[in-house]
Amino acid sequence: MSKAGRPRVASKSAKTSPLSEFIDAKWGSTGLTNDEAASKFGFMAANNISMWRTGRTAVPLSRLPKIAELLRVDMVSLFVLWLRQYKARNDTAPSILIEVLERRLMSANEAEVIKTLRHATRNSDPAFSTSALGAIARAALP
Fold it and tell me: What pTM value is reported for the model?
């Protein structure tokens, strides 16, 4: 039995972001309907979940831990996507601050590798075997 729920309708007020697109793409892996997830967040109705998934409303920073738990993803990865959501919705957000936070714990070259990997995997944070990591490292060497 499918738990798909109602079909989504495009909204003129929706402003998708990498975070909303990621949550929506990964949502099926939770096995939860929006109604079921809403109860886990303490919401009375599922529309909050739906609005996050479609980009109609921004995902509050305080909700990232529970979202990470439900999607079984790294919270730091979600935080980087949240920063991008924040920047897309706030013209005054300092781009340089967001860029620094995205790559603070790695060199500029490492950040490029991670950026390319995130793009290639659509921010899915896959696990890699030792041999796959070796192949990536060998491909990166001149």
Answer: 0.65
